[in-house]
Amino acid sequence: MKYCFGVDVGGTTVKMGLFQTDSMLLDKWEIPTRKDLGEDVILSDVANAIREKMAEHGIRREDVVGIGVGVPAAVTGGGFVEQVANLGWTQKDVKKELEELTGIEVKVENDANVAALGEMWKGGGEGYRNLVMVTLGTGVGGGIIVNGQILTGTNGGGGEIGHILADRNETECCGCGKKGCLEQYASATGIARLARRKLAENSKQTILNADEVSAKTVFDAVKAGDEVATQVAEQFGAYLGYALADLGAVLDPEIFVIGGGVSKAGEILFTYVKKYYQERTFFTCKDVKFALAKLGNDAGIYGAAKLVIV
Amino acid sequence: MKYCFGVDVGGTTVKMGLFQTDSMLLDKWEIPTRKDLGEDVILSDVANAIREKMAEHGIRREDVVGIGVGVPAAVTGGGFVEQVANLGWTQKDVKKELEELTGIEVKVENDANVAALGEMWKGGGEGYRNLVMVTLGTGVGGGIIVNGQILTGTNGGGGEIGHILADRNETECCGCGKKGCLEQYASATGIARLARRKLAENSKQTILNADEVSAKTVFDAVKAGDEVATQVAEQFGAYLGYALADLGAVLDPEIFVIGGGVSKAGEILFTYVKKYYQERTFFTCKDVKFALAKLGNDAGIYGAAKLVIV
Is B280 at the interface with chain A, CB within 8 A? Predict the structure, then answer.
């Protein structure tokens, strides 16, 4: 039996998984991201954790086919990152450094792209090879898989669908500095913003409360039949549905997989997203499938492992 | 020396090229698209033309590595088209039929995608492997190349960038039946439509004449310093520039190649497109290059040939 590791480097913790190359997850664990101790500590901690885990399971180096790594940054040249403020990294060749530390082959990709690969392999997109993953969390992340491969892009910026233009008339800024990005409407914070705007202009009765509105309270209210919350869901559905229709015309995927905190609302999301998707979609992609992500926080370790399994 | 053929099937003529596999174009010619004589005639004419050309040049079958074909339709499964009204084709396995007629390996792709591949190989995108080609003609066509390969899509609909949403407030219909598609603003007909709208609401002096306005007269007037025409160019630039910024965020290409009749206006197009592209682009793709297409009507035969040259 051969083995590999999937490593998902986040700002607070590094999630790690030991897999058999037949896809079975044997062990998963986390280590803290000790980013304040100098820029070499994180990868050194990862290498030590891998070494310990190999010893614990009695796995020899020659039986490990590789280490896949997801990082919260644009990755170029197979493993280089320019700057990751979140981790205190500057101009870091993650692939080379971790290979030197472990003696094992390493592949590195952006974490959202890796999560998409994970969902394709063993999650909501299992069985498909052309997939767009949309992660609706604090922001809107994305990952594109074409013929089973991550669309990385020239500068590692492939799949940044949170920053496509959703509203030319927006007056507030997105975190990226531009105005009108999809992320401003379809993320958890975006949905809350839409709801606050709606409440400010609304005189109808509603169970929503402007002081504690969130994506969760909005969709809970939708499920309870609240009219104002339903109007917010329609707005959300139009922004995301139209954007996915554009991606359908450009990428013509087999399936859209929706993950992230907002996706906990469940299938009801699709009621609103599909309605507007179908209104706009180009005919070639009208039969695309929609699915919820299944792997949750494990998508990163699954996708990272899949990077090194051919 | 090995050879291949590039075939670009259009509604009126079939353009054909005989290439050496080192990329040299040895011969090019056209035959009429005899679509009214039954649905098998077009491919049979193509096969005969190839046979005659091989005899003329003394080329043996074993020295022909393949025939690449571009067709004005969505292509799936490597060579199947569902319906091509333009050619009278229904449920046609173009690859299989032409292989049976010629005894030579055939690859088939959508014509816009093939043109993109041609421009990558020997045109405005030569030297790049991640490219988006935008064809501004009667409509807006597109082709996406990722790592040197056409992004075909699940149903052959990859790269249909003319039908991404450019204006949610549009009231008129696009040819596809939806409202607000990029094609309604950035095609030759779209630019003329923008100009007519502008002239209808305009009271300023202008050399544009509503009765004979076209993409050409608009950009000629822009070059002559006409203020109203310049406003139209700004609108065009915003629609196309914003759309390309979205494609930048999603695909992160190295270069955008602009072709089609509108591109005859030349570098002045980029003045308007780049301005709005830069206003909206996600940071990872801000340094993307822009170039004019170089191959004109030959892009199809070049790209088709490249399909069969590994």
Answer: yes
